[in-house]
Amino acid sequence: MLTRSLLVALAALTLTPPVPALADPGHGAARAYGEPGSPKRSSRVVEIVMRESDGRMEFVPNRVAVRKGEQIRFVIRNEGELDHEMVVGTLAENLAHGESMRKNPDMEHDDPNARRLAPKGRDELVWRFTKAGEFDFSCLIPGHREAGMFGTVTVK
């Protein structure tokens, strides 16, 4: 009986498609929007608050201007009543990952470009923006981005 159960479990695992990672080709690899920063190097600090307000969910501020090559230490605080996350990426990557999160809402992350916080939680995300352009930061918990929880990083 145990052997049969193991075979059924093994078959289910091999037939289940893998859950995509959070747009991370390798922890530490460069991406279109930059690379993980070094906590040991100096950074400009940008404080980001996550909260719910008047039926909306939001990041405050929701716009950040950065110089190409600059390292930012995002100090993130969740002042809301719900879990929230901040995921830095391209808009296309974040939208695609948001779709994956809708299908797998309990997905856990261990990615240098993302932090998930419980209510009243605080964390830091250090990122070096190596390429010019407009990039996205979003809360990809199902329904949160749609409720207004996204922002833009402009790198010049």
UniProtKB/TrEMBL annotation:
Residues 48-156 form the Blue (type 1) copper domain. The keyword Signal applies. Residues 1-23 form the signal peptide. The keyword Acetylation does not apply. One of its GO terms (molecular function) is copper ion binding. Keywords: Copper, Metal-binding, Signal. It holds the Pfam family Copper-bind. PANTHER family: AURACYANIN-B, COPPER-RESISTANT CUPROPROTEIN COPI. This is Plastocyanin. It comes from Rhodoplanes serenus.
